[in-house]
Specification:
The protein is 40% helix and 17% strand. The strands form 3 sheets. The chain has a 6-stranded parallel beta sheet, with helices on one face. The protein has a 4-stranded parallel beta sheet with strand order 7-6-8-9, sandwiched between helices. Helix 1 crosses helix 3, helix 7 crosses helix 8 and helix 9 packs across helix 10. The protein is elongated. It starts with a helix and ends in a 10-residue tail after the last strand. The chain folds into 3 domains: 39 residues, no CATH class; 132 residues, Response regulator (Rossmann fold, 3-Layer(aba) Sandwich); 136 residues, Rossmann fold, CATH 3.40.50.2300. The protein is an alpha/beta fold.
């Protein structure tokens, strides 16, 4: 059996990416490490790509940007998708791979899978799973091609997934609000179901329980995941609360920054002062979150790092097709701005 990049990496105690850099004569590796990798490659009889078919350090991979309904993968979210693509492209180059980017809008999953089945020139694919259901993901089991799913996390399915760590990040948000004196904390969920949004709601419930806070159903709101939709939905919620003489909590965690921005606009138009009357926290750290009024406290997750990790995972899967499925989650960082009031405590 021919030596693989992963074999060299294991014996040299370096990453697959480091081996790819060395074998493709790329900069970024120290001379001592470079010589050790080359020596081990020679000892293992590693053959450069070309004469024996495709290897993880040559050929083409594909990124499938799939919008099933467009409520999340749309113009409001182009920035974070662009960051994913930057990470994918960078890491593909590190491994000597070409990357193709295909976009699908409302295309039946069967057609997308069928197109991959007919294409024998592609070594593997990274699939944007943001809007994919469990059934959608299961449809890809027809393929023998290596697949990695990006921006979703589904248990009990034998695929590789790379996603943000939603549960830890939401815990960090609620714990931060607690540290700022907030005890009445609500959440603005997305009325559009995606796995990440579901995990954020689950994380909210689990964190509130862990911190011994009661979850009040009247403080859980549903809004569309687009800016305009969230704005309109929050307007309707505020009007309903006014008619029923219901108060808002002291703080709201919004499922993402797009929703938070729409909620902020609706609140301000109704005369609420942010953060004096109510504090708001988002998720994603989109560039717009730093320039809204007031600047939004949020969670930053490196989309580029997630994109790089997806390509690394795909390279490993190509080289080791029978290895166990791996689910990778990347943690987030709380970005503190001016949308949260300190209440003491």
């Amino acid at each position: 059996m021919a030596a693989r990049i992963s074999d060299i990496a294991k014996q040299a105690t370096v990453s697959n990416a480091t081996v790819s850099l060395v074998l493709n004569e790329k900069p970024g590796v120290g001379q001592e490490t470079r010589e050790r990798v080359l020596q081990i490659a020679e000892q293992l009889g590693y053959k450069k790509p070309g004469s024996e078919g495709p290897t993880p350090s040559t050929g083409t991979i594909r990124f499938l940007k799939i919008a099933r309904h467009g409520h999340t993968v749309n113009r409001d979210h182009t920035v974070f998708i662009a960051d994913y693509i930057d990470g994918l492209t960078y890491e593909a180059k590190v491994h000597g791979l070409k990357i193709e980017i295909l976009s699908y809008n409302s295309t039946p999953i069967e057609e997308i899978v069928g197109a991959l089945l007919r294409d024998s020139q592609i070594q593997g694919a990274v699939v944007l799973g943001t809007e994919l259901s469990r059934e959608d993901v299961m449809a890809f089991r027809e393929l023998s091609m290596p697949i990695v799913f990006l921006d979703t996390f589904i248990d009990f399915i034998p695929f590789d997934f790379v996603d943000m760590n939603n549960l830890d990040s939401v815990y960090r948000i609620v714990e931060y609000l607690f540290s700022r004196g907030h005890r009445d904390i609500g959440m603005v969920r997305s009325s559009v179901e995606t796995r990440n949004f579901q995990l954020r709601y689950i994380g909210f419930l689990q964190t509130m329980e862990a911190l011994h806070f009661p979850v009040r159903e009247e403080y859980i709101f549903d809004c569309d995941s687009t800016f305009d939709g969230a704005y309109r939905d929050m307007q309707a919620i505020l009007q309903k609360m006014l008619r029923s003489n219901t108060n808002l909590p002291s703080a709201l965690f919004c499922t993402n920054d797009i929703i938070a921005s729409g909620v902020l606009k609706a609140l301000r138009e109704e005369g609420y002062r942010i953060p004096d009357d109510i504090s708001i926290v988002g998720f994603d750290d989109l560039p717009s979150s730093a320039v809204v009024e007031p600047p939004l406290t949020t969670i930053a997750v490196s989309k580029q790092e997630i994109g790089k990790a997806a390509v690394d995972r795909l390279v490993h899967r190509i080289a080791n097709p029978d290895s166990p499925a791996v689910k990778v989650v990347v943690g987030g960082i709380l970005i503190e701005r001016e949308s949260v009031r300190f209440l003491g405590g």
